[in-house]
Amino acid sequence: MKINQATTAPTLEADLAVQTTLMPGTAPFRRCRTAAGSWWYLGNLATPLVTGADNGGAFALLDLCLQRGTEPPAHVHQREDETFYVLDGHLSFTVDDAVLHAGPGDTVHLPRGRRHRYQLETEYARVLLHIAPAGFEHFFRQLSEPAQSLTVPPPPANPDPAHLTALAATFGVTFG
Prior knowledge:
This protein is α+β, with helices and mostly antiparallel strands. 15% of the residues lie in helices and 36% in strands. The chain starts with 11 loop residues before the first helix and ends with a strand.
């Protein structure tokens, strides 16, 4: 990177060159929330709006409709940060020992390496989940079946905790 000798700050040209080389070359697109493109994931509805395949692995964006009683246990991501934007409902996020309450219009950022979990404070919630870098959206997909409608499915009868733990480990996530 070219350094401006007078201020030691990067020049505008150098800064733009770095930004553009880090940005993947992808085409613009529009994706709609449809049942055909959505998944039923352990009692929740997940719609991938942007996946790593769309942007060279930079991030994924999922539209999630969640229901109380299907929340995951406390866990730690080693590979990605998660950012939740609440569209509807109320959730409480526990990050290490802090509790963050969030409702419509609130954003909660969960950096990798931090133990966290969320609890629904309402029966249902809808959030946008931003995952960076991308990849963890495949965890949801591997535990899903194609959605039959844009509705939240019944909770699963008996999810296999050993299978969930083993699959999570392949994505760099540990529970507990």
